[in-house]
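Hello again, I could really use a second opinion on something today. For a while now I've been wondering how a particular protein folds. Please have a think about how the structure follows from the sequence. Here's the protein in full, and shout if anything looks odd to you:

***
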Amino acid sequence: MNKSLSLDEAKGVAQGMEVALADFVPAAQVSAVQQNPTGVLMSCSEEGAYQWSGQTKVVLNSDGTYDGAAVVNAIARTYDGRDSYRTKTDSTTDGQPRAHVVGDDGQGYLVALSVDKTFVQILSFSPCFVLPEDVWPGGEY
């Protein structure tokens, strides 16, 4: 857990990583990148610790062919062992390649093609941080 990180800083870390991961999808295959402006807080394993969770969608062109394996493998090569990240690749339940990027402070990112194959979904979970006592964890941030 990062005790010096604020809610806004944690959100910024997660959204920054969403954008960095979205950049792995070749620009010629992308029609739009839609980053959710808000997310929710989730409890971490330590008492009083939370992480911000959000999402970015990389909408694919309808006429292109998305190479999920190439994107997932490039993410794994880039982040495994970099800045205390570990990566794992596997497949979704429908057989699509998926990347997990996990950091030391509880942060994690999942990258996979959507079930309808129209966008690449990037789910983010920020580093764990201490939520100030005057902030209610049940809202959107």
The longest strand covers residues 49-60.
